[in-house]
Amino acid sequence: MSLTAKDMSVVKALWGKISSKVDEIGAEALGRMLVVYPQTKTYFSHWADLSPGSAPVKKHGKTIMGAVSDAVAKIEDLPAALSQLSELHAYKLRVDPANFKILAHNIIVVTAMLFPADFTPEVHVSLDKFLQNLAWCLAERYR
Amino acid sequence: MRRSSNQMGPGGVGLWVFKLQTGILILQGSSSSGHAETSKVSNMVEWTEFERATIQDIFSKMDYESVGHNALTRCLVVYPWTQRYFGNFGNLYNAAAIMGNPLVAAHGTVVLHGLDKAVKNMDNIKATYAELSVLHSEKLHVDPDNFRLLADCLTIVVAARLGSGFTPDVQAAFQKFLAVVISALTKQYH
């Protein structure tokens, strides 16, 4: 399900609207994921505090969304944009790719909560496709 | 499911094991010497007070028509392959057409009211949905993965409505509830 030109412009337009809250979305989505899908906590046993709003969660949420924002800027060539991060996830982090879907779902939930009027079904489908493509590129180097 | 039973031995110490068609497993034991050793194992879902209260609260305040319509519309737009089940709904050509389609609106309400059964029978969702499960499998031929897609859309619509009220714990309770419903609806597929 490749991104059409329309998907790309919809995602870029959405990012224009949400850019001021991108860090908050990241922190909230990550925190939520750790609560709603407790199995994801297994990747963060080195953190002192895994609760929503905690310092490590906020920091890491910001890191993740920073990378997602970067991908939006380079949306025309996601494989190239994500090549290095894919190596990191494949060889070092080894996060099971099923979790990309879980985090994507939570990013979508939080976006819907914070921007209910903007997050129409058409915007939703483009963002869903974008996150799916992003996840696919992130898993590219896994095997 | 197979039926199996172990009979009580002499002396009053008994261990009954019944595996019923509905899948409820009950294990009970009692001793004749007075101190009862009971262990109850069942595959009923366990709900915390918070989870029960959260589900009742969300549904008591829900605008069924609006939420049902929006959730189903979103599902048909975001996951267009789900339109395969609605061939007789007429115009589903684009998001605007889907949103404006009265059959979609009506059906969204039907689906959401279908969740009422589970809300009112949280301790027996599996049995409550046995008939609906057969219907979705044998008559409607719905791939059960679609239940998950619709559930995700419903979660997102409710999240948008509740805003900050949709805390992580509320989300966890709501998604758990939907997961149990999905499991029950999938149960009779073979």
Protein topology:
The complex is a heterodimer of chains A (143) and B (190).
Chain A: H1 5-18, H2 22-36, H3 55-73, H4 78-93, H5 98-114, H6 121-138
Chain B: E1 14-19, E2 25-30, H1 49-60, H2 64-78, H3 95-100, H4 102-114, H5 116-120, H6 125-128, H7 130-139, H8 145-162, H9 168-186
Describe this entry's structure for a reader.
The complex is a heterodimer of chains A (143) and B (190). Chain A is mainly α. Chain A has six helices and no strands. The radius of gyration of chain A is 15 Å and the shape is globular. The model of chain A has no long low-confidence stretch (mean pLDDT 96). Helix content of chain B is 54%, strand content 6%. Chain B is globular, with a radius of gyration of 21 Å. Chain B has a two-stranded antiparallel ribbon with strand order 1-2. The longest helix of chain B has 19 residues. The N terminus of chain B is likely disordered. Chain B has 190 residues and is mainly alpha-helical. Chain B has a single domain, classed as Globins (Globin-like). Chain B contains nine helices and two strands; from the N terminus they run ββααααααααα. At the A-B interface, helix 2, helix 5 and helix 6 of A face helix 2, helix 3, helix 8 and helix 9 of B.
